[in-house]
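Case study B.
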Amino acid sequence: MSQPATLTWFARHETRLLWRRWISMMTAGKRSREPILAVVAVVFVALIHLFAYYLIAPVAEAGISPDKTTLVVLTGAAFLSCSLMLSQAMESVTRAFYAQADLDLILSSPASARRIFAVRMMAIALSTTLLTTVLAGPFINALVIYDGSRWFAAYGVILALGALSAGFAIAVTVALFRCLGPKRTRLISQIVSAVVGAGFVIGAQAAAIISTGSISRFNFLRSEDFLARAPEAAHFFWWPARATMGNVTALTVMLGIGLSLLALVILVFSANFGDHVVAASGEAYESKKQQHRLAVFRPASTGHALRRKEWMLLRRDPWLMSQTLMQILYLLPPVLLLWRNFGDDLGGLLILVPVIVMASGQLAGGLAWLAVSGEDAPDLVASAPITERAVIVAKIEAVLGAVAIVIAPLLVAIAIAAPMIAAVALLGVAVSASSGTMIQIWFRAQAKRSNFWRRQTSSRIATVAEALSSILWAATAALVAAGSWFALGSALIALLTLAGAWLVRPRQANGT
Amino acid sequence: MAGLLRPDAGSVSVLGIDALSNPVEAKRLIAWVSDEPMIYDKLTPFEYLEFVAGLWSMEPASAEVRARELIEWLDLGPHAHERCQGFSKGMRQKVALAGALVHEPRLFILDEPLTGLDAGSARQVKDVLTERVRGGATVILTTHILEVAERMAERIGVIDKGRLIAEGTLEELRRQAGGAGGSSLEDVFLDLVAQQSSAA
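Model:
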């Protein structure tokens, strides 16, 4: 047992909280699900190892030498991991700033606030590193088995990149906080986090489309043109890749840089971290004045009042805006493809159809969760003189309206080049968005709107059904656009998925 | 009664309207305020009242006049165009109460309406409820502060472990508890609960 209020004591406390929060998130707070979670985790780790061995075996058998192609691919993977870790760390820092949680208790206690915030920053670095370790670990293990123990060094690289990302995320968020103040930092850091998270993947994909016309990132990274422009194999730019392959000097430098930056950031910022958290929590209680001093009540039907309220809440939710931005960012590569193929190559346009259909299904699912499960005043709406059916219809209209605003410009652009493909895409978007919405309505469970980021854990069936339905409707739309009769089969499976979800939906405690 | 749950058995009639066969018309007469104020952090009190008026299909012009009166009367004027996210518990309770009053219901169901309110606001709420009762409305409120029930209620129901164990005027409850004529509601309540426990 460590001495109270020491670093190790705080670390033990933070670890326990992190662990319980994670378990609660994965089991949606139901303790009965814990054994199932353990089984699923073991199966997941086993499957991902099998997948990794399947992918790595042929590469390793051919021999892995530190040539330019290998270095480029490893560096690309490191950039991808780093952008994801940076995004996750920024999200964690922002959450640490703005969540009230145990702040009052910590700051009113005689314990050193600096110490607890130092531990909290280390916890951010640790959780950031752990997620990437879980995802990359099976591939590293496969490389160790097939190509030798030198690949264990990759774990060290992940640790270095995790520390680097966490240190950078803390420094950037605090800098934003000091420059922009607590009001704007939350929105900006969430948007930056979303952009950084998707940035490398989408950037590489966009570069691939522009240069090669292909959507594959790795084809682009391995292309002769890219390899010719990349620095020579001896350049220090490849040190992360060399460290991954077991170069002790490179690994030592990487670890030195990463851990030093994190230590420096903790040393510099832990003393004032509490002040920022206090300022941020003050912002949460600060009212925002609307420019509606001369506002008047506008005539509206009951349905319109509900729709207007939903749209207003969506518009005023900065965190949701960043999530929506993610969806729009993922549409960027298809937009580039559209631009590249505009007017002369309808084959490229066909690729757009499934992407748009899938994005609209996912977007609709997320918005439907907010409108239905994330309703802040469910009892008010339930006690209003309006039927439950009318409430649901109004919410569906609100969700589909919001999806239409995001997707419509793309559909219009396609329609100019190929009206028939646009018509198919429109139909696909309508069906996919409606399916995503209906699944969220069937599986609605009252939750806090702020828990949007963990909505997937509340109902695994709803999450899987929503993803499957989006993918299947996307495939159906693509097959219809290509004139294939296989579309009928795909549509049938999509309908069966919906029917299955409807059959296993939980019973609702309906009002009258 | 407020239409939140479907009853397992029996019937519910609200001022002569069957709440099971005609829930929409029954709800038109009811206002329900829970102990956790049902408001939206991202809406202003003015926008909230506009939304509630829309839900109850009120005519916009008269709803707006009524909303402005309520906002002023509940001292929400300086905050009428601020988002509710920064409001104290008392202010949130006032906004929820304004929402309940804006559509002029004939039956109020209030769950702990005085929780979190300062003395002045609590007095305002009690005054408006009394005024509504004088105007012909019915108020059903739950409270753990027995002095409030003793002072305000015409009829009192005692609930123990989720079951209604006694109901009537204060005098009727005193008789039922077998207590002295001037015993307080608190004494009556404790006696009734003790009798219930010993009978069980």
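Chain A has a mean pLDDT of 81. The remaining cases will be described in the next quarterly update.
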